[in-house]
């Protein structure tokens, strides 16, 4: 009890304590169970019989919750902010506490697909140095090891068409044995034919099927630099599950990042920056927001 409180007068607000972390991360498909918060109020309860001091009573108050995500299973990715408040019978309001809930999308199948029609004559879509990143800053690279890489793989690459310069493996950056840093851009991948999005011809894409679901929020790749060898728009698409029997292609894919007005050469696709963080400092180069 604060010294400013007089007998019969409660001026001290209750105290809110958050249960659990202030920032938590879940995946689409996980179940949300709110750990809530606790609110304690210390109230004046008179002076003891010998005048030794003020007695107080510790009371637990009901906490009000606002902005909580929908109960049950998370269906869509995004950010939720839950605010906890409480008030005592004297009208004193506790300092609110908040929890940020990040829901991320994790999928096994990720592919890059062209927007619009591309390729004619002897000029075809060319790609190399493809890398996936788990963060929006394009810093946390996701290791890709192919089944023909001579090391334990973590999935398989796929493309349609298979490619003329190299199979789908050639589109990806080559990783060092330490499994941390991309060493080079690899041999590259070329479609070897036209790629069509309008249905007048076959479509084209390059992707990787991971053994376990991964979170992808950024992609970097290098396209050709001459007309017909690069797509002016790209889609990063995902599919939750699938099988090698269908080449990881086919239907069932959903858009995750869409980027248009791309020049040839280096292309960066990333998710928009969350409002709960600062995306300006860690980024370098083109700020290609989705």
Describe, in plain words, how this protein is organized in 3D.
The model is unreliable at 280-290 (pLDDT under 50). The protein is built from no helices and 20 strands. With 290 residues, it is an all-beta fold. The strands form six sheets. A five-stranded antiparallel beta sheet has the order 12-16-10-18-19, with no helix packed on it.
Mean pLDDT: 80
Could you give the count of β-strands? 20
Q: C-alpha Rg, in Å?
A: 27 Å
The general outline is elongated
Q: Low-confidence segments, ≥5 residues, pLDDT <50? A: 280-290
Strand order of the biggest β-sheet: 12-16-10-18-19
* Helix/strand structural class: mainly beta
Tell me the strand percentage band: 35-45%
State the distance separating the first and last CA atoms: 53 Å
Give a short overview.
This protein is mostly beta strands and 290 residues long. 0% of the residues lie in helices and 40% in strands.
Key features of this structure:
290 residues; mainly beta; five-stranded antiparallel sheet
Protein topology:
Elements: E1 15-18, E2 23-27, E3 31-32, E4 37-47, E5 54-61, E6 64-66, E7 72-73, E8 78-85, E9 97-104, E10 106-114, E11 126-133, E12 155-160, E13 174-175, E14 182-184, E15 189-190, E16 205-215, E17 218-223, E18 234-239, E19 254-259, E20 266-270
Parallel strand pairs: 2-9
Antiparallel strand pairs: 1-4, 3-7, 4-5, 6-8, 8-9, 10-16, 10-18, 11-15, 11-17, 12-16, 13-14, 17-20, 18-19
